[in-house]
């Protein structure tokens, strides 16, 4: 009986580990797709990684912005055209799960542009909505 219980616990643990690994990869895939879209100069496609809602929260150097459209508008003002957007790279430092549907991501960003190379850090909260991971809070500096 003891062996059966241990085997059952191990199977549940392996299943949980596999699910976490799959979810982590799905989140990394969202970020990679965003990076590719940014580098293609397509802000609308880049924004597909965010929840398309008025409850989206983006916090940057100017303070909080609420809403998907307002966040997109701010990106368009701050990064005009492909030259203003440059080439984006990420350095993902940590992906932690609060539960099966909410994750925290810590990372760095770097833009290479013709005249400068701004960089900083970000923290993201992802939520799994209808089977898809979406950013619902972004604090970038």
From TrEMBL:
Record bears the keyword Signal: yes
Pfam families per the UniProt record, alphabetical: DUF4440
Signal peptide start-end: 1-18
Domain DUF4440, chain residue ranges per copy: 27-135
Keywords for this protein: Signal
InterPro entries xref list: DUF4440, NTF2-like_dom_sf
UniProt entry tagged with the keyword Nucleotide-binding: no
Domain of life per record: Bacteria
Annotated protein name in UniProt: Periplasmic L-asparaginase
Organism this protein belongs to: Pedobacter mendelii
